[in-house]
Amino acid sequence: MKQSMTLIPTLREVPADADTKSHQLLLRAGFIRQNSSGVYSYLPLAKKVLHKIETIIREEMDNASAVELFMPALQQAELWQESGRWYSYGPELMRLKDRNERDFALGATHEEVITSIIRDEVKSYKRLPLALYQIQTKFRDEKRPRFGLLRGREFIMKDAYSFHSDFDSLDEVYQKMYNAYSAVFRRCGLNFRAVIADSGAMGGKDTHEFMVLSDIGEDTIAYSDTSDYAANIEMAPVTAEYTRKNEEQKELEKVLTENQKTIEEVSSYLNTAPENCIKSLVFKADDQYVLALVRGDFEINDIKLKNLLETSVVELASPAETKKIIGSEIGSIGPVHVEGDLEIVADYSIQSIVNGVCGANEDNYHFINVNPERDFTVSRYADLRFIEEGDASPDGNGVIKFAKGIEVGHVFKLGTRYSEAMNAAFLDENGRSQAMIMGCYGIGVSRTLAAVAEQFNDENGLVWPANLAPYQVHIIPVNMKDEAQKGLAEELYQELKASGIEVLMDDRQERPGVKFADSDLIGIPVRITVGKKAAEGIVEIKDRKNGEVIESDKAQIKEVISKLLTV
């Protein structure tokens, strides 16, 4: 492609609202342009990279025996009402009405649509298992779009769905998809981890997120320093053993702790350690309230709490709700003398406390010498805290470290969450009706583009892996008015194109410095500079990855390029 014939609007200045490397560089290098908050146009260079990512995805989906289809982005509200998500999905679901006042949604995901298709078309176990996928634009009304393509209102996604007659079949396809996703991200050159995750609003269980390691990641990964173990911090189990102090229990006593509310304030005021305090918080679990306890030096993990209580939603009660239920402000609440039928659950760490401290359920007062089971009763003990750096790895190998990650893929075992709600059934070998068992598998395609840009760059611009670069070779004649340079550049351009190499030729009437800066910014793997030695058939070849420059006779150019592109 001649550069004068395509659209690559590079920028010299960093856009003021772009605060991540990928966002800055994709804007500056002319890959994307913002149309509105969280909505972007993919310009020609980005479209070429997206096509290559999609090709990798399609190849790996084929290897996993998944077949492609294409479903509508405009979805009937009735389908979402059948699954129950019309009411529970939240404000991120973009809803609209047609001219007849019928409700629709712009597809944030397609579980409902694909389930309705399969329930109408597949009736027998003989047609199962079946795995289908699509690559399509999705819509989510993000409250706070940011980081460019990493969190937008409109984005490109590959979503796949599998249907099964038994759980063994689901396990088999889930593993195939897991392997396919690992292959996709490896082929994209990404430094990533597959981590144990929570299924969230999707429902189901047994799920993994594929996280690209990055300092700007919104998720925290807990990983072992010596093994392959990795999990989202919300899902990493704590295997610590807590030693109970060998100390005689003292008499419970209420003390004044005026204006002392946080664990740090209370422990300092009472001259005790935070780990000797009981942190007490009221949570709303669906429509019920629960008092959750954890040792003062730890934090309650609401995902673990949700899973323990087997509820759909768990959220911290508001100060007003807490005051109404307990009778005191947050900071003075505790498990002693709790009135009513409020369930008390606690992290295992609470069992180690002897003569501890907790709120007295009266503003500005705390109890000292508090002992679990003597002074209050816990209905259930469980692992309810966040894992911390330095904790033992759950797999028994090494200790936990933290890293930030960008989620680029997610695989779920949905089970019968949607098939039961939407009556998607099949007849088994005995002629009995059974609910189909489902799996769900997503890759953020546009997010993967941004993740690659986030990991592959330097101070001069993007540095694309050869298999994802919009073009493999960038030919730059220094002076288009010089006939020798212009002629050799055109000859190389035609020859390389005929060899199947993707070539961009900068035929613009621009200063050499502008051309070289744009070339580095765009990040094409190999640059051929046609300069003063053009009449001799000699050019300079630069490896964008390491900056090395060599001279080459035109007869050797293809051999040199081939080596550079395969390193």
Automatic annotation (TrEMBL):
Return the InterPro entries for the record.
aa-tRNA-synt_IIb, aa-tRNA-synth_II, aa-tRNA-synth_II/BPL/LPL, Anticodon-bd, Anticodon-bd_dom_sf, Pro-tRNA-ligase_IIa, Pro-tRNA-synth_IIa_bac-type, Pro-tRNA-Synthase_IIa_type1
Q: Name one GO molecular function term.
A: proline-tRNA ligase activity
Entry keyword set: Aminoacyl-tRNA synthetase, ATP-binding, Cytoplasm, Ligase, Nucleotide-binding, Protein biosynthesis
List GO terms (cellular component aspect). Answer: cytosol
**What is the predominant subcellular site recorded for this chain?**
cytoplasm
- As recorded in UniProt, its EC number(s) are 6.1.1.15
GO BP: any one term? prolyl-tRNA aminoacylation
**Catalytically driven reaction(s):** tRNA(Pro) + L-proline + ATP = L-prolyl-tRNA(Pro) + AMP + diphosphate
The source's superkingdom equals Bacteria
Q: Where in the cell is it found?
A: Cytoplasm
Q: Which Gene3D superfamilies match?
A: Anticodon-binding domain (3.40.50.800), Bira Bifunctional Protein, Domain 2 (3.30.930.10)
Annotated Aminoacyl-transfer RNA synthetases class-II family profile domain ranges read 38-465
Which family would the database say this protein is a member of?
Belongs to the class-II aminoacyl-tRNA synthetase family. ProS type 1 subfamily.
The job of this chain, per UniProt, is described as: Catalyzes the attachment of proline to tRNA(Pro) in a two-step reaction: proline is first activated by ATP to form Pro-AMP and then transferred to the acceptor end of tRNA(Pro). As ProRS can inadvertently accommodate and process non-cognate amino acids such as alanine and cysteine, to avoid such errors it has two additional distinct editing activities against alanine. One activity is designated as 'pretransfer' editing and involves the tRNA(Pro)-independent hydrolysis of activated Ala-AMP.
Q: What is recorded about the domains? A: Consists of three domains: the N-terminal catalytic domain, the editing domain and the C-terminal anticodon-binding domain.
Q: How does it assemble?
A: Homodimer.
The identity of this protein, by name, is: Proline--tRNA ligase
